[in-house]
Amino acid sequence: MIVTAILTFFIIGVCAFVLNINWKTKRLYTNYTLIPYRIPVLGHLLDFLKDANQFIFDNFAKYGSIFTANICGQHFTFLLDVHDLLTMTKNPSLVFSGSEMVTTIFGSHIQEDIAQVLHKTIYPQTLQRADALNALTVRFVESFHQSLEKDQMSSPEEWRQCGLFDLCHRFIFGASTRALFGDIEDEELKELETNFVTFNDKFYVFSRGLPVWFYKLFYRSAYQAREKGIKLLIKQRPNQSEFITAAREFYEGKHGDVFSPTDVGARMMIFFWASLGNTIPATFWILYYLLTTDKGRILEILREEILTHGENMNEMKVADSVINETLRLIGNVFLMRCTYKEDGTTLDLHDGRQLHIHPKDLVCYYPTISHYDKSVFPEPYKFQYDRFLHLNKLPGSYMPFGIGKSMCPGRFFVRNEVKTILITLVKEIELELVDFNYQQRPRFRKECVGTGVMVPDRDVKVRYRFKKQ
Ligand code: HEM
């Protein structure tokens, strides 16, 4: 009798459990796969933190171009066929989902209407308009050369040995920060730099959108570094760029009642990180591929290009192709959208199917999938410096800077920064690898996936010296 009762309870329990899962799965994901997970509450979090790139590629191979992951209760539907991308980005009910993310990463909430003003007015006028971009580039070049001269004076013509990543950091950090934020005293710049490095090292954890208490408890020094950086950026400096001036005026003037000084500092922190966090590793990979491919022959080709066209950056087509090809290989971002419509929204997919997006679920495109698609980019794992040289326009499946409304507004500036460094390298500096061992080459830091560009897991030894003029 007792055995029968226990068995009955057991069977009812199992049925209820199975029915509940099925019901939930059916209700939410008709026709699409919610990937099974073993750990309740966390869902796929650990797989995702360990190696999100592998997680996506594995599930793409297993389930095809649409599947849903559960990360701590948040559903991410990956929509990985490039033919469905425009359906996603052009759907008026889907909006850029960065606001919550930005809140956790930088501690500053950004409302959709403010984001629109930035994208429609401030970014185009101050980072993309030719004369504003030109002025910003000139500031970068001046600052960059000032720091080079200091370095050169310390021991002219001597070889200096360092890490390639460290060198790129030195090339970019001060020059970019001063070009954007104005004349920062050396000491304050140093302080900003220390805090940037600490926060940036753990940036990937902040980008996973976990609750604030988690960061305060487990990532205390990175959290504090962010707060110190925000404090340092509240202050205005002379000669700040048109971009920073316009953004500050917008926050402090029109929205002065909404934004406290700390909020403005946090907004500045977003621009500060955005201008450096991807640029430094991208420059590292560009120089790494130039130094390790074809025994430095591409640097020779670049030298010829620069000698032929002077220093006209718009004419540096080989440099553009090198930058594009590097970003194809290392560009790494999640393009995410969500809907706030109560009944969600439905996407009509290219193959005739429909995908319903529930409110608060995230839809996510991962451009790395198309960057490594051999039907678009033959021999996708190979660095081919001239791959983009013969294309009139960039292919639709190439998007290291994002797509649509939220596309990176700094994409023109970063090209000019890199070209400044390339011009200097071919004209003024000799740079070479030291004891390079291909077996111990840098790989991508697996845990940093999705934050913009892949970060190298180790540095590469180089030496450099200034050429005799
Ligand atoms: C290789 C270097 C860079 C890469 C790969 C890169 C990539 C990106 C990506 C993928 C986004 C988000 C797009 C989206 O989610 O749809 C973004 C946003 C942004 N980037 Fe860049 N970026 C780079 C350099 C820069 C630089 C130098 C600046 C300097 C001003 C900059 C300023 C910004 C800003 C302000 C945003 C936020 C736009 C918003 O308000 O939504 N970026 N970037």
From TrEMBL:
GO terms for biological process: bile acid biosynthetic process; cholesterol homeostasis. Substrate binds at residue 278. It is found in: Endoplasmic reticulum membrane. It comes from the Eukaryota. It comes from Adineta ricciae (Rotifer). The keyword Signal does not apply. Its cofactor is heme. This is Uncharacterized protein. Pfam families: p450 (PF00067).
